[in-house]
């Protein structure tokens, strides 16, 4: 590799790069990663890190997976990309054919984009225009208070107001926010939803609110909310960008529901973490509302890289791996081991709460500083694990494990032991 100067990569980075979710003024030097293999990534000095957050939740089968790499390489020399209006290709069609029957309920059309936020934007547009096309325009949207649906403006608007949105709050459109459902508030929430008017859709992260702090809630309550929406002609959007592809113990979180949403948003694990790709799927009823001789009823949305064939092939390869028995066994193994670990640290004086859904476990630290995403405690925890070769990025005072399914028991044990040590030392 040619170096343009005798500066280190981290120093060159500092001169030209603006990193995501990072205060660049006092950011620690960014660690140059030169290789990924299985659950590990390696820095330029050969130090090995366990990627316990799946590189922002995208990786499910491990890094540089040879099977996905082979499929992607073949596609690269066959067809790298083609405009997706007026043209189509086998990887996009095959992926839709394979994905739709796997989704809970009856999903019948796939709309491709290239990330989770855009998958959400499309879902919102589908719902708003659906009612408009039917001659019954409805402009309100319902969402959870601590939700996170992405960083573009529509996605930000339906996300909870937080430090992430603070600079833009005055420009975000109004949304009706509700609390997460529980035994105490469920009947009030159902009543509230039944009383809503002019509401086009309810968007939610099923079972776990990820960026909001790995907040978990029960399927039976979500079922009641969806039912209340259905009775009041409110479309439902499951944002499974994070929960999809096995994270919650089932292939999709909504498999754990009786009442199925009208729309799904998928990204992150979709390509096994190899390529950027987003998917919004819908029922045939929604699709049909856009069929018309009136050109204004068209869904005028698309991205340059819509349905990129390389990304679609990566997703097909990732699906092959996901559907193997060994992957399901790994998902069950990780879930079972997390449950044991939970029992071990539950009640520890520094553990305010520990919760688990499937392959995701979250531990909320008891701190005087509270739950701020910006707390020093967070930086201390992050550094502690990094030093010990584990990538765990806390959300404020909440650390969570969300690892690729190929993680071995020995690596899980090492993470558990390091968390236990941190509970004594920090
Ligand atoms: C990450 C995430 C998004 C946004 O996806 P990007 O690809 O980062 O734009 C949307 N919804 C949920 C639930 C997410 O976790």
From TrEMBL:
GO terms for biological process: biotin biosynthetic process. Its EC number is 2.6.1.62. The modification N6-(pyridoxal phosphate)lysine is found at residue 268. Pathway: Cofactor biosynthesis; biotin biosynthesis; 7,8-diaminononanoate from 8-amino-7-oxononanoate (SAM route): step 1/1. CDD domains: OAT_like. Catalyzes the transfer of the alpha-amino group from S-adenosyl-L-methionine (SAM) to 7-keto-8-aminopelargonic acid (KAPA) to form 7,8-diaminopelargonic acid (DAPA). It is the only aminotransferase known to utilize SAM as an amino donor. It catalyses: (8S)-8-amino-7-oxononanoate + S-adenosyl-L-methionine = S-adenosyl-4-methylsulfanyl-2-oxobutanoate + (7R,8S)-7,8-diammoniononanoate. This is Adenosylmethionine-8-amino-7-oxononanoate aminotransferase. One of its GO terms (cellular component) is cytoplasm. Its main location: cytoplasm. The record marks 21 as: Participates in the substrate recognition with KAPA and in a stacking interaction with the adenine ring of SAM. One of its GO terms (molecular function) is adenosylmethionine-8-amino-7-oxononanoate transaminase activity. Keywords: Aminotransferase, Biotin biosynthesis, Cytoplasm, Pyridoxal phosphate, S-adenosyl-L-methionine, Transferase. Homodimer. Belongs to the class-III pyridoxal-phosphate-dependent aminotransferase family. BioA subfamily. Substrate binds at residues 56, 148, 268, 302, 393.
């Amino acid at each position: 590799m040619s170096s343009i100067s005798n500066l280190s990569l981290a120093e060159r980075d500092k001169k030209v790069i603006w990193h995501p979710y990072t205060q660049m003024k006092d950011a620690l030097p960014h660690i140059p990663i030169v290789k990924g293999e299985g659950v590990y990534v390696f820095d330029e000095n050969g130090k090995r890190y366990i990627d316990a957050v799946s590189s922002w939740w995208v990786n499910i089968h491990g890094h540089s997976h040879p099977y996905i790499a082979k499929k992607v390489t073949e596609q690269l020399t066959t067809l790298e990309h083609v405009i997706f209006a007026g043209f189509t290709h086998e990887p996009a069609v095959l992926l839709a054919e394979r994905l739709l029957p796997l989704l809970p309920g009856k999903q019948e059309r796939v709309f491709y984009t290239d990330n989770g936020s855009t998958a959400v934007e499309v879902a919102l547009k589908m719902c708003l225009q659906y009612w408009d096309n039917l001659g019954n325009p409805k402009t309100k949207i319902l969402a959870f208070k601590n939700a996170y649906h992405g960083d573009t403006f529509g996605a930000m608007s339906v996300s909870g107001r937080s430090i992430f949105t603070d600079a833009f709050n005055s420009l975000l459109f109004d949304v009706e926010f509700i609390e997460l459902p529980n035994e105490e508030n469920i009947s009030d929430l159902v009543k509230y939803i039944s009383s809503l008017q002019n509401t086009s859709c309810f968007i939610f992260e099923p079972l776990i609110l990820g960026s909001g702090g790995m907040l978990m809630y029960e399927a039976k309550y979500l079922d009641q909310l969806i039912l209340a929406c259905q009775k009041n002609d409110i479309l439902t959007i499951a944002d499974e960008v994070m929960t999809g592809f096995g994270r919650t113990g089932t292939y999709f979180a909504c498999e754990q529901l009786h009442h199925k949403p009208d729309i799904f948003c998928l990204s992150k694990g979709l390509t096994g973490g190899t390529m950027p790709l987003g998917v919004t799927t819908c029922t045939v009823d929604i699709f049909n509302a856009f069929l018309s001789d009136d050109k204004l009823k068209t869904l005028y949305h698309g991205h340059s890289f819509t349905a990129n064939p390389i990304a679609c092939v990566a997703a097909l390869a990732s699906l092959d791996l996901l559907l193997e028995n060994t992957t399901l066994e790994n998902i069950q193994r990780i879930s079972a081991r997390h449950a044991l670990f939970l029992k071990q640290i539950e009640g520890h004086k520094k553990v305010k709460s520990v919760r688990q859904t499937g392959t995701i476990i979250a531990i909320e630290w008891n701190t005087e500083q509270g739950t701020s995403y910006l707390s020093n405690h967070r930086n201390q925890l992050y550094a502690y694990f990094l030093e010990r070769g584990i990538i765990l990025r806390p959300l404020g005072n909440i650390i969570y494990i969300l690892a690729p399914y190929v993680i071995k028991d020995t690596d899980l044990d090492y993470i558990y032991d390091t968390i236990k040590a941190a509970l004594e030392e920090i």
